[in-house]
Design brief:
mainly alpha; elongated
């Protein structure tokens, strides 16, 4: 019975590696096209993907460090590394979420010229690439956690696509700012939740 289990773990790690690589490529593409097209929602989605990818890598590294045994130098081992990793991700999410929200409000008041074609192309590419990870959602705890990250990123890409369609069909460029606010609304609550959980851990409160 061990061989299928190990094979499943290997397949999960492979799928996770592919998803992280694709996400990295897509977020760079979204950042470049977002800058060239003037789309804040594309930039926000790229920031969202970047923090999720970095957070997942940090979480995996922290989990590995936390499993290391205690020594004479570190009596309790490195268990706090998971808390520090969550704090780091929460900090990144907070910066991205607040920055996007502030800029989106400014763009609502003073809209800028936006090229919807680039938004639509990158939004579709982003949404399609994020589907790679979904097939392995039940293989392990890490994969299920990764799928939750991907689901949030997929909503961001969907928002970009809808905003691009609205701009292309109606010319209402503020749709990009509205989509950006929705992406910020996905980011900020997660950041607050992570900060709260990390704070409880750092203060040695009873774990939930």
């Amino acid at each position: 019975g061990r061989r299928p289990h190990n094979h499943g773990q290997g397949a999960g790690r492979t799928r996770l590696s592919i998803a992280l690589a694709l996400t990295s490529v897509v977020l760079v593409g979204e950042a470049v096209v977002g800058w060239l097209s003037g789309s804040l929602s594309l930039l926000a989605d790229a920031g969202h993907m970047a923090t999720d990818s970095a957070g997942l890598v940090v979480a995996l590294l922290a989990a590995h460090l936390a499993s290391r045994p205690s020594t004479d130098r570190s009596t309790w081992g490195m268990r706090r590394s998971e808390v520090l990793g969550a704090t780091l991700q929460a900090g990144m999410l907070s910066i991205v979420g607040v920055t996007v929200a502030v800029r989106a409000v400014i763009n609502l008041i003073q809209p800028e010229t936006i090229h919807a074609e680039g938004m639509l192309v990158m939004g579709v590419i982003g949404l399609a690439s994020l589907s790679v990870l979904m097939g392995g959602r039940g293989t392990s705890l890490n994969m299920r956690a990764a799928c939750l990250e991907v689901a949030g990123d997929a909503l961001g890409s969907l928002g970009v696509i809808v905003a691009g369609l609205v701009i292309r069909l109606t010319g209402w460029v503020q749709a990009d700012a509205v989509a950006s606010l929705l992406i910020a609304a996905l980011i900020v609550p997660r950041a607050v939740t992570l900060l709260s959980a990390a704070g409880r851990g750092l203060m040695d409160f009873t774990p939930t």
